[in-house]
């Protein structure tokens, strides 16, 4: 297992960037912070006003993943559905995504890299599932087509 991020005091929340539907006129709000308890908290409110409906937090990275098959994320959600997203190249428009559900308790989500499929603006892209040797961006997104408050706590992200 190779830890990618463990949200220790050396993790800078400024390295993570929130994006909401405000980029297209929506009014959703989100926040990301790393706490003194070695957790990251992604929270806010998703609004459907002005054709909105999503919030995302992303992080640029440079991970060699050739010898790994699985992403392991230790998290505590609020019972809502989210997406984990990766890009092999930050220049591409599409993301490779894996939806996951949270249960309100601490859990470790395991996502096979080869099961992550390409999406662009909510539509599946007709290309093969993720098979690259590198990951250059990771992200978490909420967009359940409902107005809702959300809170996702993150403890660690690792490759296995």
TrEMBL record:
InterPro entries registered for this protein in UniProt: Galactose-bd-like_sf, NADH-UbQ_OxRdtase-assoc_prot30, NDUFAF1
Q: Which residues form the signal peptide?
A: none
Q: Which intervals hold domain NADH:ubiquinone oxidoreductase intermediate-associated protein?
A: 5-154
Question: What does the sequence similarity comment in the record state about its family?
Answer: Belongs to the CIA30 family.
Taken from the record, one Pfam family name reads: CIA30
Recorded protein name is Complex I intermediate-associated protein 30 (CIA30)
């Amino acid at each position: 297992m190779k830890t990618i991020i463990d949200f220790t005091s050396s993790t800078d929340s400024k390295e993570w960037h929130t994006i909401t539907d405000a980029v297209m006129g929506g009014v959703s709000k989100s926040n990301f912070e790393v706490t003194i308890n070695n957790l990251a908290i992604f929270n806010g409110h998703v609004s459907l006003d002005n054709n909105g409906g999503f919030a995302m937090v992303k992080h640029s990275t440079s991970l060699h993943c050739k010898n790994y098959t699985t992403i392991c994320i230790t998290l505590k959600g609020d019972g809502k559905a989210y997406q984990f997203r990766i890009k092999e190249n930050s220049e591409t428009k599409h993301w490779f995504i894996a939806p996951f559900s949270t249960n309100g308790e601490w859990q470790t989500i395991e996502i096979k890299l080869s099961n992550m499929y390409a999406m662009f603006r909510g539509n599946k892209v007709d290309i093969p599932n993720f098979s690259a040797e590198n990951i250059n961006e990771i992200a978490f997104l909420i967009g359940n087509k409902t107005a809702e408050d959300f809170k996702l706590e993150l403890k660690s992200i690792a490759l296995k």
